[in-house]
Specification:
alpha/beta; Oxidized Rhodanese, domain 1; 2 domains; 5-stranded parallel sheet; two-stranded antiparallel ribbon; 30% helix; 15% strand
């Protein structure tokens, strides 16, 4: 229940800032002590060196979430790399898996994630120990990679591409999107 209360307080702060109403928590920090079920307010001084709100701010816009989350961008590492052209939606993957096409499905999540849920027929090759040159798979074999949300599998895809693999796809949105759109009774985490 508590994370919901804290989230509600954070959302309320956003609304106050957007509407420019009420007294926002600017310059104040609200501390919560779960053991005592109490709150305490602390005043915080502004840091003049802060990159966002200091005297000479260097951050003056929204961050690029693709770059921040290490999602490959066009022309990154190789001249012809366009991450979006490698994406495959869960519904398309379902059709491919139901067809007679020979596909290798690689799950690059960690073993503890694999234990929670997996797509039938997948092989586990955790990114933490992934070596593109030691997969034992032919370079022209069709491979579909997935992870939780699609970021780690795109990293593995890039590694495979560097090693000369040519028939690669990444499950867009990862196994989480697969669970939402295809296998709706699959456990999510």
């Amino acid at each position: 229940m508590l994370p919901g209360v804290v989230g509600l307080m954070q959302a309320t702060e956003v609304i106050k800032l957007v509407l420019e109403e009420g007294l926002p928590m600017i310059g104040r920090l609200l501390l919560y002590d779960a053991m005592k079920m109490s709150f305490r307010e602390v005043k915080v001084r502004r840091n003049p060196e802060c990159e966002l709100c200091g005297e000479n701010p260097s951050v003056n816009g929204l961050i690029d979430y693709q770059a921040f989350c290490n999602v490959p961008l066009e022309n990154e590492d190789t001249e012809d790399f366009d991450g979006s052209s490698y994406e495959m939606t869960p519904k398309v993957l379902k059709q491919v898996l139901e067809s007679d096409e020979q596909q290798i499905l690689l799950d690059v999540r960690e073993p503890y994630e694999w234990d929670i849920c997996r797509i039938d027929g997948a092989r586990l090759m955790p990114l933490s120990s992934f070596k593109a040159n030691q997969t034992g798979i032919d370079l022209d074999t069709p491979i579909v990679l997935y992870c939780y949300k699609g970021v780690r599998s795109m990293s593995a895809l890039k590694e495979l591409k560097k090693e000369g693999f040519s028939n690669l796809r990444n499950l867009e949105g990862g196994i989480d999107r697969w669970a939402l759109e295809v296998e709706t009774d699959m456990p999510r985490y």
